[in-house]
Amino acid sequence: MAVCGSFVLSFRKLLLVLAILVVFDAHTSHVDAVKALFHPRDVLPLLPRQISWPLLKVLSNAADLLPSFVGATKFDAESNLQWKGACFYNNTAWLELHNKSGSEFGGGTLHIKVSNAHSWTCMDLYIFATPFRVTWDYYLLSREHKVEFKEWESEAELEYVKNRGVSIFLMQAGTIGTLQALWEVFPLFTNTQWGENSNIAFLKKHMDASFEIRPQPWVSNISVDDIHSGDFLALSKIRGRWGAFETLQKWVTGSYAGHSAVCLRDAEGRLWVAESGHENEEGEDIIAILPWDEWWEFELMKDDSNPHIALLPLHPTLRAKFNETAAWEFAKSMEGLPYGYHNLIFSWIDTASGNYPEPLDAHLVASVMTVWTQMKPEYAGNMWNEALNKRVNTQNLTLPEILIEVEKRGSSFGELLAIPEQDDWIYADGKSTSCVAFVFELYKEAGLFGGLSSSIQVTEFTIKDAYSLKFFENNSSRLPSWCDSDGPTFCQIQGKYRMELPGYNTMDPYPHMNEKCPSLPPEYYRPNGC
Fold first, then answer.
1. Which of 285, 302, 283, 187 is nearest to 239 (CA)?
2. CA-CA distance, 160 to 151, in Å (whole number)?
3. Who has greater pLDDT, 448 or 163?
4. Residue 180 belongs to what H/E stretch?
5. Can you say how many angstroms the Cα of residue 375 is from the centroid of all Cα atoms in its chain?
6. How far apart are CA 150 and CA 98, in angstroms?
7. What is the pLDDT of residue 438?
8. pLDDT of residue 309
9. Three-state SS string across 226-253, please?
10. H or E element: which one contains 20?
11. I need a labelling partner for 41 at 20 to 30 A (CA). Which of 83, 231, 287, 426 fits?
């Protein structure tokens, strides 16, 4: 026991010393004249895991996986790019165009001179991009480095580089911070208890979510007679692939739910659930109309994402206006169509810069799209190419061609992404609606928006926008007797943790709502009338 006690004491002392070094470094990092022999963050991974990881968890977060846009190096000797890196504090870059390869469009050399490292053990990671390519490099030594572009792909790339340069992105957390950020994000996608705990921890950390444990039973004894056409279903998944996707979606949009569906009764009084995002037998995500019993059994017994589900009953006034026939006609016209990947990201991005958690921005989005297009070209059209073409009123342009066209028009990619989606746009595979857009398109057809219907684009709605509308029950005395409602006037029907829906049922609809709204965490401030 004495040996064990001595080890624990020594461990605590070492942990304390390292913590002091980290704090001290935070207060003295502005002193660039003296280079440290080492930086605490650089050597932590060399220490035992039980020492290093607790400190690394304090130092990094998932945002560190995102490279920050440094700038673009142009073909202009008088406009060298200068910046401060994560490791090297003095950095300069310039672009040289040449034709060493003897090719039709020539090539270029990106010169990067780095100096004044904060320690002997650090290094900087960079990503370099044009609309046609993405490459990367890392630097350990103070000197001039070169990134060679043997030949430009086309005249379009050459002209783009001449006018806009090569974009430079810095992994601002450095090597160790990036690895730690990866450690935070990777488990989100695992279908394990570790993954579930990681999703909960992420949302607590980045959104101040509470995840209060509810009293049992965690599944309501529902009487389907109390569920009506138009009642909204909000789902929050916290495990596996869908759990991770929803976690990241919640973080960037401020929504506390990640999926939605709507209830419908047919002429015989049978209850159905209509949703965009149902996975069919072929593994495709489609729009489907399912009997309530089948849908509910799947969520209870087969959905391994641990879904938490809330029923949001329509307000009686709106329920009386709900045109069930029109709603069914719309739902059946959409049944079998693909999930609305075309407009998925555009419901989130409403502004040129106010929807991106740091260091994410439109430059990085363009580079990610470039990488994804090269890796999975068949998905590019489905995810953004066709939607971007609609925004510039063109057809069949590739992503690089779209970026060049935007520059020719004197606009920017950030401004292009912020152009509102239009509900009447028809894509190659039909009308495109995400889960929440599908429900609110159905609400439009059912008459719930009244005279505002033509001036509201519901494909611009996030799930937060949806549950914030004053469409739902506001009197707890009218809720069903089996309803678990502790405060808000909705019924949580499944889940261990109490669902939070901040801003629930508080906003009246107005023309062009949700078309110009920022959504920056953690406050997710929303100006009036956006």
1. 187
2. 14
3. 448
4. helix 174-185
5. 20
6. 9
7. 97
8. 97
9. HCCCCCEEEEECCCHHHHHHHHHHHHHH
10. helix 2-28
11. 83
pLDDT at 526: 92
Burial (Cβ within 10 Å: 0-12, 13-18, ≥19) of residue 356: buried
Q: List Cβ neighbours of 4 (8 Å cut-off, separation of 6 or more).
A: none
Alpha-carbon distance 123 to 506, whole Å?
Answer: 49
pLDDT for the residue numbered 11? 34
How much is the mean pLDDT over the chain? 84
Asked if residues 171 and 86 have their Cβ atoms less than 8 Å apart, the reply is yes
Structure tokens at 172: 């601002």
Beta-ladder partners of 170? 68, 126
Extract the tokens encoding 19: 């913590």
In angstroms, the Cα distances linking 232 to 140, 309, 382 are: 55, 10, 27
Residue 289's pLDDT is 98
Is residue 129 helix, strand or coil? strand
Q: What is the pTM of this model?
A: 0.76
Residue 132 contacts by C-beta under 8 Å, 6 or more apart in sequence?
Answer: 152, 153, 154, 156, 157, 160, 370, 400
DSSP assigned state of 302: I
DSSP 390: H
Taking the alpha carbons at both ends of the chain, their separation in whole angstroms is 65
Neighbouring residues of 162: CB distance < 8 A, sequence distance ≥ 6? 74, 75, 97
% of the chain surpassing 70 pLDDT = 83
Arithmetic mean of pLDDT, 27-39: 40
Q: Determine the Cα–Cα distance for residues 459 and 424; give it in Å rounded to an integer.
A: 10
pLDDT value of residue 60: 47
Q: Which of 249, 241, 242 is nearest to 203 (CA)?
A: 249
Name which residue leads in pLDDT, 23 or 213: 213
